[in-house]
Design goal:
Oligomer: single chain
Largest sheet: 7 strands, mixed
Number of domains: 2
CATH topology of the largest domain: Rossmann fold
Strand order of the largest sheet: 6-2-1-7-8-10-9
């Protein structure tokens, strides 16, 4: 087998990632290299920098600049009721299981700016379960967590979010869940009452509780196989017996350390149940 030669730019990217881990403690060493390189290049172009070396100097000398870089490096594409069929399947297949528990702990791993967390809070409210739930919403990026904690999003998005909410089996008028103020939609404070937003890095941090549901959608696709295996190990040991795991459309438990210890609950929507 012919091993492709590393370019000088590849070596610079590796050096940058190692320095970030050593200096700031954020570990991107097992992220998918092509995607990581592309995002670094995009940030350099957007900032008008001339080289990776210049970027490295900036982020190692200025915490605020590093936070800006971190925001650009992490993928924060999300929406309310993203992939509405997932939420419809969750409503139809998972909610009946959750009704059997006196108290429910849910972990949204890689929650980004929180739209999907609020979507789950709305769904649980409509199913009469929210008051006996605790949702732990985590991300490695503190800036997006601040947005999530505020629960304020662009009013321009609400028409599309309303459409997705309806497709996801929504039972009310979506506008009941937020107040319009100028060009913003401010989501109702009661939706945040049972949500804990906190930093957690899937690359280096360990389990912090036992959960009935773990949702991590469209995050693992940015990790290499080594990191994916680590995260699946973390999720398996963080789920209670018969707990539910929800992944993104392009993600799977196939070829993971515990693939035979789950059964498919809804194959098409990547909902699994731990059986061992």
């Amino acid at each position: 087998m012919i091993v492709p030669q590393q370019t000088f730019e590849d070596i610079e990217v590796q050096s940058l990632i190692e320095e970030i881990y050593t200096f700031w403690g954020h570990d991107f060493r097992n992220y998918a290299p092509s995607s990581l390189k592309r995002r670094i290049q995009s940030f350099i172009y957007a900032e008008g920098l001339s080289s990776i070396s210049q970027l490295q100097k900036n982020i190692l000398s200025d915490r605020l600049y590093f936070n800006k870089f971190l925001l650009g490096l992490t993928v924060n594409v999300t929406s309310m009721f993203r992939d509405p069929n997932f939420y419809l399947a969750f409503r139809n297949e998972v909610i009946p299981i959750l009704r059997t528990y006196p108290f429910i702990r849910i972990w949204h791993a890689g929650c980004s700016s929180g739209e999907e967390v609020y979507s789950m809070a709305i769904l649980l409210t409509e199913e009469g379960l929210y008051q006996r739930c605790r949702i732990y919403a985590t991300d490695l990026n503190e800036q997006v967590l601040q947005t999530a904690r505020r629960g304020i999003f662009s009013l321009k998005l609400m028409q599309n979010y309303t459409r997705l909410y309806i497709q996801a089996g929504g039972k009310k008028s979506f506008s009941e869940y937020y107040t319009a103020a100028y060009d913003h939609a401010i989501f109702s404070p009661y939706l945040r009452e049972n949500i804990i937003f906190a930093q957690h890095n899937l690359a280096i941090d360990n389990s912090f509780n036992e959960f009935h549901v773990i949702i991590c959608r469209n995050v693992l696709i940015y990790f290499n196989q080594t990191l994916q295996s680590r995260v699946h190990e973390l999720f398996y040991h963080s789920l209670c017996s018969f707990g539910i795991l929800g992944l993104g459309k392009q993600e799977s438990i196939s070829f993971t350390p515990h693939e035979h210890e789950y059964k498919e609950l809804v194959k098409r929507e990547k909902l699994y149940r731990r059986v061992n």
